[in-house]
Amino acid sequence: MKILIIEDEKELAENIATYLKGESYVCEFASTYHDAISKTGIYDYDCILLDLMLPDGDGLKILEALRKENKQDGVIIISAKDAIEDKITGLKLGADDYLPKPFHLSELGARIYSIIRRKHFGSTNSIQVNELNVDLLAKTVRVNNLLVQLTKKEFELLLFLLGNKNKTISTAALAEHLSGDMADMLDNYDFVYSHVKNLKKKLTEAGCKNYIKTTYGMGYKWEA
């Protein structure tokens, strides 16, 4: 899952990213209003952490732009501005949550998880697709109760496909989701093909049906 951290305090942003990367998230940064507007206009994120006080603009304007464009990125406002009117304004503009500074990283992680789970999988902590079970909290995958050992990237890929079931996801979108804006600097998407191949192999060897379908010339989709 991909997170955008819009925060001008470099040390705080890096601390958040270090924690979230340990939770298997891909993190990107924007330290200014204009950088944030640029990134949110080009990329889609599972969750955006939005500071309201940026050196060159108002964070609420970023949220307003997102919702005007009907983008579905989850948004958590993280700000030292804890006035009740800021919280109400942010929630009215479409923020999913509001977390005043300072906060514990574990609480931030729990709130991000809650938003992503709700947006992609309803309110469940477990996804069951016939013989396949994915425990979102434990981050485990089982086929007919047999544990399947996946890498972080393979697990992330599986969740992305499950969260977009029956939709063809382009190879470029998968590359962006797995590697963030670093995808723009890649010469090819061989790493995506490799992750898809390894994920399919591990699942089928455990007895799972082949739900990952290739749409030639376009990408992949989870078809079940």
Keywords:
224 residues, five-stranded parallel β-sheet, alpha/beta, four-stranded antiparallel β-sheet
Short note summarizing the structure:
The protein has 224 residues and is of the alpha/beta class. It contains eight helices and 14 strands.
Structural write-up:
With 224 residues, the chain is α/β, with parallel strands linked by helices. Helices cover 43% and strands 24% of the residues. It contains eight helices and 14 strands. It has helices spanning 10-22, 33-42, 59-68, 84-93, 105-121, 152-163, 171-179, 190-205; strands spanning 2-6, 26-30, 47-50, 53-54, 57-58, 74-79, 97-100, 126-129, 132-135, 140-143, 146-148, 169-170, 212-215, 219-222. Strands 2-1-3-6-7 form a five-stranded parallel beta sheet, sandwiched between helices. Strands 8-9-10-11 form a four-stranded antiparallel beta sheet, with no helix packed on it. A three-stranded antiparallel beta sheet has the order 12-14-13. Strand 6, helix 4 (84-93) and strand 7 (97-100) form a beta-alpha-beta unit. The radius of gyration is 18 Å and the shape is globular.
Strand content: 15-25%
Shape, per Cα inertia axes? globular
| Separation, N- and C-terminal Cα atoms | 22 Å
CA radius of gyration is 18 Å
Name the helicity range.
Answer: 40-55%
> Uncertain segments of ≥5 residues (pLDDT<50)?
none
Instruction: Tell me the number of strands.
Output: 14
Number of helices: 8
Strand order of the largest sheet: 2-1-3-6-7
- Report the major sheet: 5 strands, parallel
Mean pLDDT comes to: 90
Q: SSE order, as H and E?
A: EHEHEEEHEHEHEEEEHEHHEE
Output the structural class: alpha/beta
